Amino acid sequence: MTTLTTRAPTAILQSAWREIHLSWLFIRTDRWTTVFPATCFVMAATVNARLSPYETAVSVGLGALYFWLFVYEHTLANQLVGVDEDRINKPFRPLVTGHSTLRGARLRLIAVRVTFPVYGYCLGILKWALLWQILSLLQHEYGWGRHWLGRNLYAGIGVVAQLAAAWEIVGVLTPYAWRWIVTLTVTVTLLMSVQDLRDINGDRAVNRSTMPLVLGETRTRIFLCIGFAVGPVAIHHFLMAPAGPHWWTVATDVLLGSLSLLLAARVVLFRCLAHDRRTYRLVEQWYTLALAASIYTLR
């Protein structure tokens, strides 16, 4: 016979699983810019620090949970202020589909905003957790998200908050690690407007000031094309060349450079909504691939 004492743990586990699944629904489209690449940078730090397999597994696990909370705070705050445009641009999101209520999302945001810095403190990276929370407030509560410059700064400075935390989960930041962080921060800040190409209709509907709407779609595409075209030179000079003339640096140079040139072509030649969404997915995967390469270039 099932008793209250046997039902209670089952109900708790079911509730916990529902929350994990719901958090996945909120973050799933942002995993390639947060959880995956940042966890790769944690692994790069473990390789650089010569940690044992057990220590590496623990550090990577702790880092993955941290960056799950990192992006969960962003997506909750972002989607709470963007329901109307999500009905146009991203109708699959939980607040549009009904998987979560507004009240439920607000309560979860409060819980994450408390849990995230506490967990960051336990990992010894409180300052980076607080930097991310300040950026989130500026973006979602104080208007940064309404203007293209604020949006790009949010993404760029967010790279610092993300990657500095990833490295310091393991140890002290090195000059070469900072070189990676600064290079990717500048790259993301300059090129993040590629995400706005797929959201023009929704952004226009809510009067958001994005680069394609301010400068014009054609000018924005030309700017992004030039940025992606010169990207391989910067990546080679600042990230790959210092690692030395090894076969893996040459292979990474070729792979990242080829993908960057593909993006340069796509952003001007493929201009429909479906292609713009695919282009942005490729940008996210380029970012993850670059940080995966840090595992062997930063050793």
From TrEMBL:
Q: Which InterPro entries match?
A: Prenyltransferase_related, UbiA_prenyltransferase
What UniProt keywords are attached to this protein's entry? Membrane, Transmembrane, Transmembrane helix
Which domain of life does the UniProt lineage start with? Bacteria
Which compartments is it annotated to reside in? Answer: Membrane
Query: What membrane topology does this protein have?
Result: Multi-pass membrane protein
Transmembrane segments in this chain: where?
110-132, 153-170, 222-241, 247-269
What is this protein's name?
UbiA family prenyltransferase
